[in-house]
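Final report, closing paragraph on structural work. Over the funding period we assembled a curated collection of sequence-structure pairs, and we close with a single example.
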Amino acid sequence: MEPSTDTLRYATVMLAAGFGIPVLAALNAQLGTRLGSPAAAATCLFVIAFASSAALLLVTGPAALAGIAAAPKHLLLAGCLVAFYVLSITWVAPKFGVGNAVFFVLLGQLVSAAAIDHFGLMGARVSPVSLTRGAGIVLMALGVLLTQKA
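Its predicted structure, as stored:
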């Protein structure tokens, strides 16, 4: 079975996002170190991210924001999770290493993504954790452990 064009496009976008996570971590960790404040670096990052997102929204149609009042308020907590990630990686990466920090982020992503898919949480498509999928998560955890031994 050959992957569809959409599948390849989505995979490419997410691969690029994956490449961007450690770059973001390294850049913002350096900015936080230079400024002497992870919170100041995170604030700068969010101001630039807001401006970038707002510019894209203006191009693609700001009318989409009209539905925000009707959206369940708990969906807005995603912004708190982004802030937690940026603040934590900015603070931890200079002390722990970008690679170490991102390895643990990745492990957390794998475990939480597996749980979200397994139980169909937050409207996700149900995809039960199989023996193969569980083994992959365990192998990843072992890989993280091995990176810490070096």
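The two ends are 40 Å apart (CA to CA). The chain has two domains: 1-96, 97-150. We thank the funder for supporting this effort.
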